[in-house]
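hey team, just a heads up i'm posting the complex here instead of the shared drive bc the drive is being weird again. everything in one block, sequence lines first with there labels, then the predicted structure for the whole assembly after. its two chains so it's a bit long, scroll down
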Amino acid sequence: MTIVYEDRGDEAAEVPVRRIKFTINGQKKIAEVEPRLLLSHLIRRGVGLTGTHMGCDTTNCGACTVLVDGRPVKSCTMLAVQVDGREVTTVEGLSGPSELHPLQEGFKQEHGLQCGFCTPGMMMAAKALLDQNPDPTEDEVRWALSGNLCRCTGYQNIVKSVLWAADKLRSQAG
Amino acid sequence: MYPSRFRYEAPRSIDEAISLLHEGGDEAKVLAGGQSLVPLMKLRFASPELVVDINNLPGLDYHREDADGTIRIGALCRHADLERSALLKSKQPVMAAAAPLIADPIVRNRGTLVGSLCHADPQGDWASVVTALGGFVVARGPAGRRRIGIDDFVTGPFQNALEPDEIAVEAVIPAPKGALAGGYLKLERRVGDFATVGVAVAVETSAGTVTRAGIALTGVGGATINAAEAAQALVGQPLSEQSIEAAADLAAQAARPRTDHRGSAEYKRHMVRTFVVRILNANGDGSAAADGAGGDEDSAERAA
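-- predicted structure starts here --
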């Protein structure tokens, strides 16, 4: 990733840049980042994975939700330097090379999206829920998604999508 | 939005963190969960020159109970850890009620109780809970450790009693001297919003008599309000309808609400009263919910 700075004489030389190593969707990466770079920007602009959406940029909407070491976080509210040595999973990391993840399939089957902007964050929050709780009640799904805002669907179909995915994952497991 | 430029350090020991803070002086900030600090930095309300990230410090992510019943919460214990805690569910009803009401589930994965106390937002929930429970903060600095009572720790809106080179390493909740009951109720417009009104109530009872009580209020003043007079109205007698009503009235009087987009001052004051009654009736006397604290979908009800 190339970062271009203003040339302000001496000051430009003092821009603190740190080298970090991290894993994203199973791939190992090295990046040179300025400490103030947000994780969301590292993912979108640095790695080029634009599935992670920036909605409010104020820690409210959850569209930028990704997993860091398996836990969902709002990537607009974490510094990129903080994922040094950690493992990041984005919505692109859900599916295999050819088939959709059950969550993605569930959103398709149950019409869990309209404009689709909140969807990546919804899926990542749901992924974290199902990893911990493979058989959630509707209430538990609603509770787990309560940090993710959707302005289109009224949430009904999102909840159904997650429950659909939970069923599918359980039947796959056996 | 980007924060302004800063130097970033991620020390591996508390001593190293303290010496970095010492070096940075007033211009240094500790980064723990970052769920308040990072948004403030992005809005440029905070522009520290040095950010000392304590997330790599070992051994601070605990919450545990000492043999005597004291509960200790380390600086890196996340809200989500407390939400899922079996210890709090069995021993600490006030904290167990509050944990699921902090911010939203994703923010709870990062944010910390100790960080919330340090941030000292008048609308922070944990400061009220720790106030009602008579807790304190343990700080470490170049001169060693010291404990700071929660009333002295929060010195004003967004201000705490820490020296620039001190780190709050844990919050401590003293062991109850009798049976502990109480809860935290929060009225919010939607999940993740700040409290329109929050009320924390803790009651310790021995042989049917209340031996200690704490009541603290969130969002109805320029800082967390310790409604000590209201709490005192419960002490020295069994809980009764009269004492509960008296405490609720005094708590409502202690509130200093302002009319804003979340509600009128009158409404907020009324909710303080309602919440005190509701918490004490729900479990304060050890019996099942007697009044209103079960049943509907209002998020505030989940705490009871």
